[in-house]
């Protein structure tokens, strides 16, 4: 190969590279559609610590080692926490708080339903009650928990076991199904 053919070859490569770089003009919608078609998240965050505030008042704190954002889904956008989460909610100006722990969680933004799986623990710090189960659904619209799995609810007065559970987010006013254990009731 002589000098002019080497120069011609280099020019062809340079023109091809420039054309390739300038031909990549994807807009954000095309990128979202590509990621959605490949079932890829539009965003990934590691070691998150997110504080929710309403009118200058902290209402909750969310911690997770990994968050995958699938908000690019048209019919069912969701957020996935494949390595678990810890959520602390504050009610009554911080006097009442509830902590939610799970090994895995998926939260659907359109329906506001969150599924919690694996070593799920709900703690009401005001009355010292704790709920243990392997799977729990949380309707964020109504702040209501429900499950058809085995559970254990421990409070200072009771230790209740069963299969199937529903309650308000603070574990008060609950409905327990297929019970076993000791339950102390008060007569009025």
Structural commentary:
The structure is a single chain. This protein is of the alpha+beta class. The chain has a single domain (42-181), classed as Lipopolysaccharide (LPS) transport protein A like domain (lipopolysaccharide transport protein A fold, Sandwich). It is 16% helix and 53% strand. The chain has a 6-stranded antiparallel β-barrel with strand order 2-3-6-7-5-4.
Brief sketch in words of this structure:
The chain has two helices and twelve strands, in the order H-H-E-E-E-E-E-E-E-E-E-E-E-E. By secondary structure, it is of the alpha+beta class.
Total beta strand runs: 12
CATH superfamily: Lipopolysaccharide (LPS) transport protein A like domain
Please report the first level of CATH classification, the CATH class: Mainly Beta
CATH fold label: lipopolysaccharide transport protein A fold
Portion in strands: over 45%
**N to C succession of SSEs:** HHEEEEEEEEEEEE
What spatial form do the alpha-carbon principal axes imply? elongated
Distance between the termini: 103 Å
Percentage of helical residues? 10-25%
Defining key terms:
single chain, 2 helices, 188 residues, 53% strand, lipopolysaccharide transport protein A fold, 12 strands, alpha+beta, 6-stranded antiparallel barrel
Topology overview:
Blueprint (H helix, E strand, L loop, with lengths): L2 H21 L4 H10 L5 E12 L2 E14 L7 E4 L3 E7 L4 E7 L1 E5 L4 E12 L4 E11 L4 E11 L4 E10 L6 E2 L2 E4 L6
Antiparallel strand pairs: 1-2, 2-3, 2-4, 3-6, 4-5, 5-7, 6-7, 7-8, 8-9, 9-10, 10-11, 10-12
